[in-house]
Amino acid sequence: MQRSLALSKSYVRPWNQIQKLPRSSHEVFISHRGIDTRRNLAGLLYDHLFRLRLRPFLDCRNLKPGDRLFEKIDTAVRDCKVGVAVFSPRYCESYFCLRELARMMEYKKRVIPIFCDVKPSQLRFEDNGSPIPEKEIEGFRMALEEAKYTVGLTFDTSKGNWSEFLESASDAIIENLIEVDREGLEIIKSPKQRFDAFVFTSSADGTIKVWRRELQNQALPGSGFVETGKCDDSVSRKQIVSRCIMQILRCAGEILGMQEEVE
Question: Which PROSITE patterns does the record associate with it (predicted)?
Fold first, then answer.
């Protein structure tokens, strides 16, 4: 038992370095054109992610009177792990939307494009004598080109299945968040520590597959848990398990780190 515990500690210890990094107040930044999507797609996606405890940021939900607009937006973009750009017919008409997109690309964030009632080829910035500096306009165009060639999701608001889309979008966001957390291993300089962490995460992956299969076999349709042991019907078991994976990877190192301090 002691040998097993010691072995587990050696695998998880490198994650302590990651856990000591400041955690962002928002994990997912949602960029959208309010006039097109605030009351439907963007708002529903925010609510869905919020129920999954993913700490999303949406300007109309998180900004309050007195906030400095650009300062608050830039901080949220810089600190987020995944960006979601909800492209709509009038997205490119908004300076604020294009600025958010350019910032996400500038900070090299993972960006998931959602093409809502618009095709990637239709995304373009029209400079009709705009007072915007040429350098900033070039940044907007580069960000749009990069988004066009990023694999994303498409949705037709008049024909699409809203429930299925929200689940697909949430799954994509969760998968990217998990990958971003794993990429945190890159901050570990020691080859041995990186190998130990790789062994730990690889072992965890095998265990997680077993847990996922057991939950799928045993859980009743619509059942699950989010803190209290219950969840909204719109939250799938797959999303619950994926969220648990993230929490396990984040907390395991911290828990064993505290145990080491006690000992």
Answer: TIR
Active site residue 263: no
Q: How many CB atoms lie within 10 A of CB 224?
A: 21
Residue 200 binned pLDDT confidence (cut-offs 50, 70, 90): very low
Q: Which residue is associated with the tokens 């949602």?
A: 30
C-alpha 158/C-alpha 166 separation (Å) is 15
| Beta strand 110-116 pairing with 153-155 | parallel
Contacts of 25 (CB under 8 A, 6+ apart): 55, 76, 79
| CA-CA-CA-CA torsion sign (52, 55, 57, 58) | positive
pTM above 0.90, yes or no: no
Catalytic residue among 71, 100, 214, 254: 100
In a domain, 123, yes or no: yes
Same-domain pairing of 161 and 77: yes
Confidence of residue 124 (pLDDT cuts 50, 70, 90): very high
Query: Does position 147 have pLDDT exceeding 50, yes or no?
Result: yes
